[in-house]
DNA sequence: AAGCAGACTATTTTT
DNA sequence: TAGTCTGCTT
């Protein structure tokens, strides 16, 4: 929860702030150069653990202290609120309250601020809603349905992804339509156009719009651009490798690349990033931006930070070895002067259950030996569903833990329902939110009634809300009286709530009123589903969040010493719009346990943290367990066939390894249950890429004669693979207690030769093109004609027969 | 309009 | 396995 409120934190009281000399003294030469560089665009290539944040914050402090820059001239952009908060805090510790006049924010909140201020220019109201991916998907579903798009052929999700990609590339609907080359793209363009119309009539922007619309604003209105250009003379961007094309363009537009007609020089630009840690390509991030920085910004200067202050040399060497396998990368080798440290510990378990037991046992003995507190330990996995086994085992053993990520607070249904109510109160045109709550809780307004009202709204060219009002006055044709009555009740309810909202009722009281008067809480309380009990708790939590929000902002506002900068574009502190903005733009309510032993009374040892590798980016732990290193799990199955995706998986592995400070564990399981059925996976190729002398294998795969040895992943073929599936084993033959060899019995289900014809349950008829490997590693590449060429493992019960 | 049973489908996710 | 969606019944 704390990320909601830690943005404008006051700096800790300091007797004396560091003087200028101190600002540079404890920096290495490269860091120092990055801090003091003046003039042209600067790219700081900051390897993992190389003191990136330190460089950024010192640079800002140095600008203020040494170069006479006013804080108001500084714009620092990050990707997460957490990063923004940390930067603000650390700068404040160096320079004090002057830090409050800087813009330190995420791309998105920066854009919201600009858009609120300039909303009129774009023909929007400044009370616009911000749609997240869930709202977006809902609206796209509605649009697709209205346009008769076959949901079987093109799922809303697919459409949403494509539209998002277009926006990330700054392609508007017209351009999308003209460039559409196939049926899918034509449909997407069609939906895109209508979707934008609906967004704008709902007075809403989606996440991608926040960026894209700000770019068009700056490009279409030079005077607006000039205002910001004049104002921000220093633009700093963190995690530059994660920027997409739209964000890149935004940075360019903001900083400028040449002097304006009115003689304003480009702002001084400083970007920091590491191409090797780019793990968000699937969301549009382009590694190109950092790779081509020097081309994009002539006379740019580049500084490489390679000295690492986090990990042992063993860990760094492992990381270097893995990432070195990625093609076309700028050479970079992390090093440290703090010694080799412990060897990496490797472990091969029979199944996922045993892997978790190994991890738990190891954590226990580390704790017992006093070599680590629980809070020093993190367990990483590739996908969220892998957390379950760990939870089971940890609970059984009484090991305190916390899972980070998964379904987040603000994504829970009940919370979103309440937010939808609030949004409607702030912006009645917000049709997506309005339709969400129309019949929640159930009040007798069904699909049919909703459709009739929607049609009426469409025909009369009025908003859905106005159409509901028409329903009250019996002006909607085809609406049956029962529904009209139900709608009347709903409209009356909303009117009352709106009255409360506009008369300045505080957000938490408003929430309480919604919970009571809608009967939402009552419904949950009456239910005997245990899930509903936790929903009630979440709602109570939400009210608490709202109350703290009000109190916190009141505190900040009343602090006379605080140099609060309230430009246009910032909603009144504590107000409903302010709350909604915070909620929309802060995703992670679940906090990551703090390393200092953390939560209340855990005996000081804290808790073990469990999370995906993606979530782990930017964090560090003394002890790290990298689990599930199996081909098909990590790297993920969907990445196996595509070199670009495989390279991203490798960067992910690199990120995972470099989170560790002192001890690194890597493990894999021979079988793993997924979707109910146990699955066999070969070793991750990344394990083979670890230098063997750095790894102490505690347990290896039992080798049987003729079955090949562990680690010889022969399948490094780069041949075309449309898809890869792994054989299923019958569930009866696997149990954690069964002796080892047993798992291999009758594993070769099919003996195939080139030219054989086969029939596969999923892919149909095919011809064997090639065969590879023996025993459990036996695979065949099969041409299934229209279903493509597929490489299959022949172990276990392959759903395939030889003809 | 609402509730239930069977079908379907499964990454990662800073905002 | 589990959560969501669809279509059928009441």
From TrEMBL:
UniProt KW Transmembrane keyword: no
Biased composition (Low complexity): 706-720
Keywords linked to the UniProt accession: ATP-binding, DNA-binding, Helicase, Hydrolase, Isomerase, Nucleotide-binding
GO cellular component assignments: cytosol; DNA helicase complex
UvrD-like helicase ATP-binding domain boundaries: 25-312
UvrD-like helicase C-terminal domain location: 313-618
Annotated protein name in UniProt: ATP-dependent DNA helicase
Naturally occurring in which organism (per UniProt): Amycolatopsis echigonensis
